[in-house]
Specification:
Number of strands: 11
Radius of gyration: 18 Å
Structural class: alpha/beta
Order of helices and strands: EHEHEHEEHEEEEEHHEHHH
Largest sheet: 9 strands, mixed
Strand content: 15-25%
Helix content: 40-55%
Low-confidence stretches: none
CATH superfamily of the largest domain: Spore Coat Polysaccharide Biosynthesis Protein SpsA, Chain A
């Protein structure tokens, strides 16, 4: 088989089953689907395991006893299945057109220097784009073409990086660049990986394949968890990759604090805590759990 599809689940029953339904309908034949349960509650996992075994017997289940975050959970599966030519990381709140994987693999096959690619990702149930990769805007990797209504007919290189919710990665590039940084735990792991890949001379690509994203169904948009890790990890990544990027991020942080004061006033203190923890050198999983 050519592609190992890795779906990470944490306490999300319905979206995960819908995602597996979409993946099972992909036309691309040379694939294996692996569901990684990232330390879900035992009852949730039992129910999910029973339903997956009944409806998707071809899906392999890898159970982790502890939530290792996006980085750790995916890394565990990547280590297990890196003998495949490609690893396709898919969020469990995402669905794809049936030809999406064919189109993505076709693009990757054209040039071995393409380390990874993604589809055009639309908001679920909408014709508005959620992401065509990312670009740096006022010191932060913002979603590129977010909110636009457009049909992408040709593949292109994004201004900055890719998003990790539907990312097809060449296994040889993973071995060369390294796996995801588990110090980040959650958020911006793919940002860091894309920067490292580009520094090694690899290319990144947005293809014309299409996917549909429900957006932050597991942790919640503007939740305490979302805001904390978004703030902390971007400063960690920016500092890791050079003083110029780090200073640009720090100088523009007041703009983002103001934005979240408008969008998420009740939880903005957790964004500020994330910034402070980044400067203090706090890494790994935080004890912030509530939404």
């Amino acid at each position: 088989m050519n592609v190992c599809i890795i779906v990470l689940n944490y306490n999300n029953f319905d979206d995960t089953l819908e995602c597996l339904e979409s993946l099972s309908g992909l036309r691309y034949r040379s694939k294996k689907i692996v569901l990684v349960d990232n330390g879900s509650d035992k009852e949730v996992f039992r129910k999910l395991q029973e339903e997956v075994s009944r409806r998707f017997p071809e899906v392999e289940i890898l159970r982790l006893e502890k939530n290792l975050g996006y980085a750790g959970g995916n890394n565990e599966a990547i280590r297990e299945y890196c003998n495949f030519k490609y690893i396709f990381l898919v969020n469990n709140d995402l669905q794809l057109d049936s030809d999406a994987l064919d189109l993505m693999v076709d693009e990757m096959e054209k040039d071995e220097k393409i380390a990874a690619c993604q589809p055009v990702i639309y908001y679920y149930g909408s014709d508005r784009i959620w992401s065509c990769g990312t670009r740096i805007f006022l010191g932060y990797p913002r979603l590129y073409m977010k909110g636009k209504r457009a049909e992408i007919k040709e593949s292109f290189e994004p201004p900055f990086g890719l998003v990790g919710c539907a990312m097809l990665i060449r296994s040889s590039a993973l071995r060369d660049v390294g796996f995801f940084d588990e110090n980040l735990f959650l958020m911006h792991e793919e940002t860091d990986w894309c920067i490292r890949a580009k520094k090694k001379g690899y290319r990144l690509l947005v293809t014309r394949a299409r996917a549909y994203h429900k957006v932050s169904r597991t942790i919640g948009l503007f939740s305490r968890t979302y805001l904390y890790y978004t703030a902390r990890n971007w400063l960690i990544v920016a500092r890791k990759h050079g003083m110029k990027m780090f200073l640009y991020a720090v100088i523009t942080e007041p703009l983002r604090i103001f934005y979240y004061l408008i969008k998420a006033r009740r939880n903005v203190i957790f964004y500020i805590k994330g910034l402070l923890d980044a400067l203090r050198g706090v890494r790994g999983e935080s004890n912030i759990r509530c939404r």
